[in-house]
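Hi support team,

I submitted a single chain yesterday and got back a structure, but I'm not sure I'm reading the token output correctly. Could someone confirm the output below corresponds to the sequence I sent? I've pasted both exactly as they appear in my results page.

Thanks,
R.
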Amino acid sequence: MNTPPVTPTPETLAWAILTEAEATDAIKSMVEERAGCGNLPTPDSINDYLFWIEDEAEIQEAQLETSPDETDRPPHLVLLRELAGRLRDLGFTPDAPPQAADEGEKVKLAVAAYAWLCPKCNKYQRVIEVTLTVMCVACGKSFSVADHHHVYG
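Hi R., thanks for writing in. Yes, this is the structure output for that exact sequence:
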């Protein structure tokens, strides 16, 4: 007796998409790091991740408008928009912006890592300190560091 194939749920498909995006471009790690840097809850639903992915895409778009010569941004921006589109196509919508546990209490932020995209393989990377060179952990290529910028968003 043949058992009919089980159709995956939209949530199962969405988690698979996010897992793939993490394996290829560290997208879940980026989202979790951004939430942690803002002292906000770690995303735990597809809608949470979608909020942060779309928020990052908006930041990247704004930075591209002010620095159009940064050629590493467009591929990352396309990746973020495509990922958000795939999740929306499955019926997910971004949650409301997360709130810190106590709005009255202020925190001081410190840079924990610098982010960059490898120009050779287009993989999202993080480094802890500013050095004269960086090496892509995905493809092994080394690059000179131009200038580093603080992101405000």
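A quick pointer for reading it: The chain has one domain: 10-97+110-144. Let us know if anything else looks off.

Best,
Support desk
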